[in-house]
Amino acid sequence: MNHIYRLCCQIWQRAAKINDRLLRGNGDFSGWMSQEEAGISKEKGNQYQPSTDELVKVLEKFNIGKGDHILDIGCGKGKAMYLMSSFPFGSIEGYDLSEKLVQIANENFAALKLEQCRAVQADTAVFDDYERYNYFYIFNSFPQEIFEQMMDHILDSLDRNPRKCTFIYLNPVCHEYMVKHTPFQMVYRIRHVIRWMEYCCYTYTPIIARKEEGVGRNE
Question: What DSSP string runs through 59-112?
Fold first, then answer.
């Protein structure tokens, strides 16, 4: 099993490096980075790996327009935000605990002239500026304890500013928590033999809107 895992990692990294070369040297998304290299602890976050290109297929399932705003939680070098830039989001923003990764991400955006993309340094445990977004994306960025703190902040933002939201989750390690302990409901899934290439998508609809649409409350 470890041999298969290492082989899959090598294949993924080689494919990502090919994608970087297709950007004519104007992007550095592919290189994996450990917590130590990124300057964070294992208790605070997982290693950086670039998101898979299948994120484009996921986003194609939704009717995205200028009124939509997406936040990449634990954005790393910004690979997912680069993929998001193919869609007409009003804004594409992300944050990461690692200052080093955020710097690389913003350098990537500048090199590729992606003016709609912006990354900032922030700690998920205290970050609570979620109200401006109706799309959220995460690639298993940190342990479940931190994930739960993040979801508490998101749910608080939905109390303050009720709105329909979509949550896109690559490598959904905390899937059971999402469906059992939050009002988000899974609406779409891309399964994969490799768990960390699997996507789950969830939506949240405010109580008032659900009643108007005749949808029962199941929280």
Answer: HTTS---TT-EEEEET-TTSHHHHHHTTS--SEEEEEES-HHHHHHHHHHHHHT
- Ramachandran angles phi, psi of 206, nearest 5°: -55, 150
Decide if 128 contacts 163 (C-beta within 8 A): no
pLDDT digits (tens, 9 = 90+) for 97-114: 999 999 999 999 999 999
**Strand bridging mode 199-204 / 117-121:** unpaired
From CA 56, how far away is CA 60, in angstroms rounded? 6
For the stretch 166-188, pLDDT in tens is 999 999 999 999 999 999 999 99
Q: Is the pTM of this model over 0.90?
A: no
CA 137 to chain CA centroid, nearest Å: 3
Q: Please tell me the distance from the alpha carbon of residue 169 to that of residue 199, in angstroms, as a whole number.
A: 6
Q: Across the beta sheet with 199-204, what order do the strands follow?
A: 117-121, 91-96, 69-73, 135-139, 165-170, 199-204, 185-190
Q: Phi, psi at residue 6, to the nearest 5°?
A: -65, -40
Mark the ranges of the chain whose per-residue pLDDT is less than 70: 1-27, 33, 38-39, 41, 43, 45-46, 193-196, 208-219
